[in-house]
Automatic annotation (TrEMBL):
One of its GO terms (cellular component) is cytoplasm. Keywords: Hydrolase, Pyridine nucleotide biosynthesis, Pyridoxal phosphate. Belongs to the kynureninase family. Its EC number is 3.7.1.3. It comes from Dokdonella fugitiva. This is Kynureninase. Transmembrane segments: none annotated. It catalyses: 3-hydroxy-L-kynurenine + H2O = 3-hydroxyanthranilate + L-alanine + H(+); L-kynurenine + H2O = anthranilate + L-alanine + H(+).
Amino acid sequence: MADHATSLLEAQALELDARDPLAAFRDEFLVPRNDDGSEQTYLCGNSLGLQPRATRAALLDELDDWHRLAVEAHFRGRHPWMPYHGFVRDDLAALVGALPHEVVAMNSLTVNLHLMMVSFYRPDATRNAILIERNAFPSDHHAVESQIRFHGHDPASALIEIDPDEPGGTLSDAAILGAIEQHGSRIALVMLSGVQYLTGQAFDLAAIVRAAHAKGCLVGFDLAHAAGNLALQLHDTGCDFAVWCSYKYLNSGPGAVAGCFVHERHARAALPRFAGWWGHDQATRFRMAPEFDATPGADGWQLSNPPILALAPLRVSLSIFRRAGMGALRAKSEALTAYFDALIREHAGDVLEITTPREPSRRGCQLSLRVKGPREAGRSLFDHLHARGIVVDWREPDVIRAAPTPLYNRRIDCLRFVLAVREWAATRKR
Ligand SMILES: *Cc1c(COP(=O)(O)O)cnc(C)c1O
């Protein structure tokens, strides 16, 4: 690209970044650096979010309280450990559009998915199927298949997979709602993602719930790529449960404590569940009686006392989301991803195909990109980007995912990505 064209684009990007009302939030994060000391262009928040600056101090506080107070820190710590999981409740509820007693932070994502299926996948002879996307995340496949087998059914008939029916590998509303309409009477559970990890497609959660409930199916969502990305309204959506992880858009660190939503309508239901003492009614938990008396709401699904050192980063991270506001973040995100999308189409359209839907309502911040030409070209571009300090990720067989997240990414990050793609294309033409 000619130098003056590049300068013009850079000036434009910097100008837009300067006008971003959320720009200051970037300073709350630690951006990894290249060997030469420059900041990386990090577009991988869809996979592992960056570390908030405040996380280290929050962790050290807990280590200090453990040192100074030991067992007493359960009651006298700066953030007492006994009620600790409650400190994230309100922020978590606000983040996903839920009532406070509908959410809980616990375990990890796949564990929560299993615990939810214990309660909400109750197959019988005629209604025993689970509906998922054919290209669902492997862990979700493993979880639903193993649940089907655990109940003595055969995935060959009890696992119904929706095939992509759009050119980029995405699913039309008609394909999803059609599958529910067609198979509804034998579907026990509809288990779909909120934002598809591979294509970046966002599903119409409310429409899915309406269609599924009309057929008598329960509905759960895996929101790994939706939490902290979309402005979710889980309570109004009406799904029966949802689960998500906290290390992607929620910036809470590798393997962070995950989230779980159980709709209010199930808060006091006598559902089968795998129980543990931390799910027992708080008022009587320490009577240490053998009978289980579930805490109403999502808290009743907890098993163990929570890992404080893993919850501290979540507490920090959710306080950032509270201050920024998910509505404002989503507004910035739509504009940022639209900018990224337009830049790619205009300046890298000869090289890259965007497979993520173009409509804002059908995607979050991530764009899934396919390199035109042989698969080796995709790997070669990916390696080139990495060598330039541009961090995106690669998903087999041929997808590059790039996610400008609204908390710490800028227009200039999107532009650097596109300029590096141009540079790569120029070297290949020689
Ligand atoms: C990231 C992700 C997972 C990972 O599961 P863990 O239990 O957190 O290791 C599972 N499912 C989906 C859809 C994901 O995006």
